[in-house]
Q: What sequence folds into this?
DNA sequence: GTCTATACATTGATAGAC
DNA sequence: GTCTATCAATGTATAGAC
């Protein structure tokens, strides 16, 4: 059977995209190769034509996800938009929907247990995200701190049971992140 | 065979303690019941005399670990000690040794994917930790924000490959956490 | 390029001996 | 209370047909 040109790249991209969504929701360690392949519309046999193993997929997921995050930050032009993005990150909608949210609160801990190659890919991609954010904020240290603050808050909020407790954690983080931004070069 | 009184409780405690250390290092999902039992010096058969399943152990680990964290914070008496604890949390030693470190950066994401019971136990235990910290800092929102800031920074740092990048993330978080403390009621 | 089929290890969990 | 032995199910990964 013949396939149109670019089909291979497209299939790989689907594995990364859909597999990434599954991993963000269920956890990477808990997602089997069969599952990761199935959500992308194929079987595990086809999976291994694209990746040598699960580890390689994790690196690809992290790279693709952080590229998306970077693009989202790059689109920010005004301080108003920056504060809006902050609120969206620290929202109940984000907490409730990990599969369409940021990769950091869900998979960063698993990257830490991954291969050196995966951590290298993570480091490069995160540096770009931080750079873009630093450009908008005016201070790289503040950008990094705001990022880790938001990531920690969303992850902790997801571990909580009651809506009230989740909202409290998000509100505290929002207040603190805003204070950090004001203390930085941001007007 | 007969066992001295309290043997059962002691065995269970060992399962929670040693199993917790393993889960913090390797991840809970990646740790099998056989492994969790083995590091506590027993087999999986014995494991099920103490817990109905893996989920129950996770709840017990989270409770015990956060009780330890709470006790550590409770021992803080001066502002100097508070800043010292902050530096210790945001240290390379902590980043490099998850098995003897805080449970939050390693297992919070997995708690979020756990049962409602596990999340309930997590919420109660974390509330106590936050309360104790709020008492020392003077503001509960600041206490929560500092906590999530530190947790996020340590988790992200562990995902990075180079020592330089890790140090940069920790330094940014340290600076921001100190600023938050100064802006709060802390002298 | 993707499939089916399968190898082989490990998973969570149970039963029964001691 | 803990052990050994074992289960069915699922894990990662490979081989070969189409």
A:
């Amino acid at each position: 059977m013949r396939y149109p040109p670019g089909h291979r790249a497209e299939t790989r991209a689907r594995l990364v995209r859909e597999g990434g969504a599954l991993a963000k929701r269920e956890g990477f360690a808990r997602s089997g190769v069969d599952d990761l392949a199935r959500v992308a519309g194929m079987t595990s046999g086809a999976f291994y034509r694209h990746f040598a193993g699960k580890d390689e997929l994790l690196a690809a997921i992290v790279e693709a996800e952080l590229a998306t995050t970077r693009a989202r930050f790059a689109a920010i032009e005004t301080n108003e938009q920056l504060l809006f993005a902050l609120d969206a990150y620290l929202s109940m909608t984000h907490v409730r929907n990990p599969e369409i949210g940021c990769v950091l609160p869900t998979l960063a801990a698993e990257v830490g247990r991954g291969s050196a190659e995966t951590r290298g890919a993570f480091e490069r991609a995160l540096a770009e995200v931080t750079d873009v954010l630093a450009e908008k904020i005016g201070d790289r240290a503040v950008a990094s701190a705001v990022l880790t603050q938001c990531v920690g808050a969303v992850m902790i909020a997801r571990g909580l049971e009651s809506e009230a407790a989740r909202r409290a954690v998000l509100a505290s983080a929002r207040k603190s992140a805003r204070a950090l931004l004001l203390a930085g070069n941001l007007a």
Observations:
- The mean pLDDT of chain A is 94.
- Chain A touches chain B through 53 residues (CB under 8 Å).
- The radius of gyration of chain A is 18 Å.
- Chain A has ten helices and no strands.
